């Protein structure tokens, strides 16, 4: 496949990849989602990530139908990557995409759940061992030797399931022997850009470069060769230094040259005399000829010795059989899978159930909020959560939450400002996206159908025809396409006048039902909507008062089939209570009369405030 055939790889990018990696290696890096290889080749990380997402998930990236969905998708992967045990694992997480094959979704989910269980099974000591092993592996650049050392470090971990299972089959003694040999070699590369330590173990000794410290004789020959090359490049200096000695004739000059070179290089004088030319017309001819031949001789000797040492090291590596290759692959995969398992454990994610014709959650939590998050229960479409009394009892015992209704194609979510309506939309979007990627979700229980498109549209404050037009162009085309669409639209009325917004919202609800899609629409215009079609309902979120600190107290759990009410008396009560200036307080008290002075006073009494 040509590099230019991949999305985002234009002529300049293709040329850069070909120059730095070679076309074959570049194609391999793209196909294996190797972000590090592309970044090392000079491709900006963000661009490399986009290329690899498209290369490995183009068929399913259409799920992300709006920019707001793509933002949630990016934020979810960034959150997951923050728990990565290695930089490369983090890169692999960032290029995860929604999957179109249900079997692939289930397989990935099984692997991540197994990794989560394995991570949670680690005791504190073993968890520290795992983190340290991968940190050292990462710091070493993920080389083959680093992978073998990581595999040996993980040998004593008292968990052999999930990502640790392939490591448990390795021969530790053979790996220790191979690790010593791998420390003194690296694979040669003919590609421009130099050697790559992270390539697979070379198949033959001829492909190995032996590093310093592997063999004393090889190190000595290389030192002598480097010194001889230095003298060769300074032949005239050699002539001058020898002539400054007690040189009576040409023969004594030649002897002086041999002694001088032997002293400066450590080469045996006999070897130098063997390299000297038999006939030389003058001093310059003798010195340059001697040094040139000596360099050639030492190069040949060093090459022969390197071949011998490389063969010995290769034999030690080969004695490990396929364990080295297995360790290289298993350590990289374990870092990736354990990173996702760690993410699932840290965020308290659970296995979703795939099925039904909708999305339903019980005990769902917004993944991006800090601190304690109040769980909620919600659903749109058909589902089987709490389909029988036994499961209903389990759900109520766990969270004291009632399972959401089933069967409605559209819900209209109403309620107080700052009541968590947008947060609920984002939570549903996150659950649907994580499930589509084969990842666990932030809910106690979740049942998620498979969608072709998710349309998420956040509230926008701009109020003009251009915003209305762009919004409709963003959300309507995906809705009318064939396939299954999930609509999550926030406060549509914010972009046009309320009366017309209600008409448009009625039209969207009708269109959603007519097209067989699913939708959750947030609005403050429930009272202005026409009668909703069958299989559509209105839910509400309610503010319940003010806390002692005058913060709004909200029951974030929607009440099904009930219109939520805005409660301005709570806000006005807080303004009255917080007003320091007597005149300003009087103004707020005037507003209290407009919204219901009795309700305001009751609220103030509830928070134990009394006027001066």
UniProtKB/TrEMBL annotation:
One of its GO terms (molecular function) is ATP binding. Keywords: ATP-binding, DNA-binding, Nucleotide-binding. Residues 71-372 form the DNA mismatch repair protein MutS core domain. Residues 408-592 form the DNA mismatch repair proteins mutS family domain. It comes from the Archaea. SUPFAM superfamilies: P-loop containing nucleoside triphosphate hydrolases (SSF52540). It holds the Pfam family MutS_V. This is DNA mismatch repair protein. It comes from Halopenitus salinus.
């Amino acid at each position: 496949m040509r590099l230019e055939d991949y999305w985002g790889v234009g002529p300049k990018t293709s040329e850069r990849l070909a120059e730095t990696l070679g076309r074959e290696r570049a194609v391999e890096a793209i196909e294996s989602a190797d972000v590090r290889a592309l970044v090392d080749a000079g491709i900006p990380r963000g661009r490399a990530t986009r290329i690899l997402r498209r290369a490995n998930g183009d068929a399913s990236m259409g799920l992300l139908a709006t920019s707001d969905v793509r933002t949630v998708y990016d934020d979810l992967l960034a959150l997951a990557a923050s728990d990565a045990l290695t930089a490369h694992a983090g890169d692999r997480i960032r290029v995860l995409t929604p999957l179109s094959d249900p079997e692939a979704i289930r397989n990935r989910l099984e692997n991540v759940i197994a990794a989560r269980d394995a991570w949670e099974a680690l005791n504190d000591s073993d968890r520290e061992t795992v983190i340290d092993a991968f940190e050292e592996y990462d710091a070493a650049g993920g080389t083959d030797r680093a992978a073998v050392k990581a595999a040996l470090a993980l040998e004593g971990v008292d968990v052999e399931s999930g990502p640790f299972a392939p490591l448990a089959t390795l021969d530790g003694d053979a790996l220790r022997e191979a690790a010593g040999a791998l420390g003194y070699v690296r694979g040669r590369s003919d590609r421009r850009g130099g050697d790559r330590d992270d390539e697979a173990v070379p198949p033959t000794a001829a492909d190995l470069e032996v590093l310093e410290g592997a063999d004393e004789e090889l190190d000595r020959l290389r030192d002598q060769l480097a010194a001889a090359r230095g003298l060769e490049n300074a032949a005239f200096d050699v002539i001058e230094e020898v002539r400054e000695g007690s040189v009576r004739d040409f023969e004594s000059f030649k002897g002086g040259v041999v002694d001088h070179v032997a002293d400066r290089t450590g080469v045996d004088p006999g070897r130098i005399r063997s390299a000297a030319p038999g006939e030389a017309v003058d001093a310059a001819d003798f010195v340059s000829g001697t040094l040139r031949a000596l360099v050639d001789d030492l190069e040949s000797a060093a090459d022969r010795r390197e071949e011998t040492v490389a063969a010995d090291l290769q034999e030690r590596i080969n004695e490990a059989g396929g364990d080295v290759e297995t360790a290289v692959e298993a350590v990289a995969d374990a870092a990736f899978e354990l990173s996702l398992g760690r993410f699932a454990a840290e965020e308290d994610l659970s296995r979703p159930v795939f099925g039904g014709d909708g999305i339903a959650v019980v005990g769902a939590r917004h993944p991006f909020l800090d601190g304690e998050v109040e769980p909620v229960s919600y659903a749109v479409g058909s589902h089987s959560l709490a389909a029988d009394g036994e499961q209903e009892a389990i759900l109520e015992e766990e969270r004291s939450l009632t399972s959401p209704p089933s069967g409605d194609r559209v819900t209209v979510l109403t309620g107080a400002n700052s009541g968590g309506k947008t947060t609920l939309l984002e939570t549903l979007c996150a659950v649907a996206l994580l499930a589509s990627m084969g990842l666990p979700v932030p809910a106690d229980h979740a049942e998620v159908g498979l969608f072709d498109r998710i349309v998420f549209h956040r509230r926008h404050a701009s109020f003009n025809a251009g915003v209305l037009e762009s919004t409709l162009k963003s959300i309507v085309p995906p809705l009318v396409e064939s396939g299954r669409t999930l609509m999550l639209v926030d406060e549509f009325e914010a972009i046009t006048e309320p009366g017309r917004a209600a008409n448009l919202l009625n039209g969207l609800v009708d269109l959603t039902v007519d097209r067989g899609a699913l939708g959750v629409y947030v609005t403050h215009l429930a009272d202005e909507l026409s009668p909703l079609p069958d299989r559509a309902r209105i839910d509400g979120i309610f503010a319940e008062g003010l806390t002692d600190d005058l913060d709004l107290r909200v029951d974030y759990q929607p009440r099904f089939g009930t219109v939520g009410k805005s409660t301005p008396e709570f806000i006005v009560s807080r303004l009255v209570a917080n007003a320091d200036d007597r005149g300003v307080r009087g103004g707020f008290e005037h507003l209290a009369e407009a919204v219901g002075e009795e309700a305001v006073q009751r609220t103030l009494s509830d928070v134990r405030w009394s006027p001066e």
